Amino acid sequence: MRTLLITGPGGSGRTTVSAATALTAARDGVETLVLSADRTDSLGAALGVPTGAEPVSVAPRLTAWRPDAAAGFRADLTAFQDRARNVLDLLGASRLDPEEVTPLPGAEELALLRALRDAALSERFELLVVDLPPAPQALALLALPEELRRYLRRLLPPERQAARALRPVLGRLAGVPMPAEWLYETAARWDVELAAVAAVVADRGTRVRLVAEPGPAGADAVRNAALGLAVRGLAVECLVAGRVLPETAADSWLAGPVAQQRKTLDEWRETYTVHPAAHLGRDPRGLDDLAALAVPGASPASAPVEWPVTDRLAEDGVLVWNIPLPGAIREELDLIRLGDELAVTAGPFRRVVPLPSALRRCTVDGAALRDGELRIRFAPDPALWPRER
Questions:
Q1: Burial (CB count within 10 angstroms: exposed 0-12, middle 13-18, buried 19+), residue 69
Q2: Residue, of 198 and 210, whose pLDDT is higher
Q3: What share of the chain is helix, strand, coil (3-state, %, to 5)?
């Protein structure tokens, strides 16, 4: 299955473009599922068919699904209370009834991640179109599986689980309570679920489509989103320019906005494949309006984004890690070595990534930003690097 993640600034028409993309793909003969976690049914409004907790057929080869965040949150809380029963009883805590639970902020995003995992495992669909939240929230959401897995492994290292049988004895010897079995089981289950979501995001068949209205604000939003996606190692498949105004007479009051849009579109075309979606003069509603936008379906998967290591030992005595960061500003870059990991900060975005095996035996020797690519130099550590015979 191919996955197409669609995001952009708030109010840019992300949901409309998601629906239009899915419709185009379905009419091209691709079995397609469009997925959204919006609490209000904006997806259903665009499609002209109500969507909800159960997948609904919208058109031939097109299915829409808006998972119920409240139901998922209640199920998770109930399962947690069951596993932590002994601890809750020891603390004298009263358990919450599922019917009195309302979803907390972020429940929609978590429901979307779970639905993304479930849909990716389905063999029914060939294409999954995901209507993500606005770009800042979407970038945080895409980072969540990888970051949570790292936190879980740091707090409850898998290698320590081998000592489960000794835990009661160790607890008595140390005089402190040891983590209970249910905690490790829960962590292991979460790790598996998060790994499944992270695999979908990192899959070579996953692409991102940005949606923005051409203009200064849209240009800034696209630049910021593209940098955040690059930090996550994700490629921008194309850019859909929404609400593009028609060409008009020079003396029309629309001449100024049209010229501004044209300037932004020309700038975008220097970097991205751009698909203008015409302004219909109204909010698109129903399949006919979506088809009139002429938004393309998903393109075939291309080569994934890579962070290659260049061997320059013979010339300069270093290895160079090349990290594409289009739009990055030198003054907003920061690197911190954390053992076998590297914390990369670019503007407001930060990611902790494991070092390739060869670089773990090296020390950081400097870095430079050139042509939208961060090049980090690593010098072999004599204490760790294999000696030549």
A1: buried
A2: 210
A3: 45, 25, 35
**Which residue type, as a one-letter code, is found at position 275?**
H
346 strand-pairing partners: 333, 349
User: Around Cβ 332, how many Cβ atoms within 10 Å?
Assistant: 13
Instruction: Tell me how far CA of residue 56 lies from CA of 27, 203, 338, in angstroms.
Output: 17, 26, 47
Domain 2-68+104-292: CATH class, spelled out? alpha beta
Look at residue 170 in the predicted model and tell me its pLDDT.
43
Query: Between these two residues, 159 and 120, which has the higher pLDDT value?
Result: 120
Query: What are the distances in angstroms from CA 55 to CA 41, 45, 51, 52, 115?
Result: 13, 15, 7, 7, 11
Residue 44 pLDDT > 70, yes or no? yes
309-380 CATH, one of 3.40.50.150, 3.40.50.720, 2.102.10.10, 2.60.40.790: 2.60.40.790
Query: Cα dist. 90→80, 85, 93, 97, 271 in Å?
Result: 15, 9, 8, 19, 60
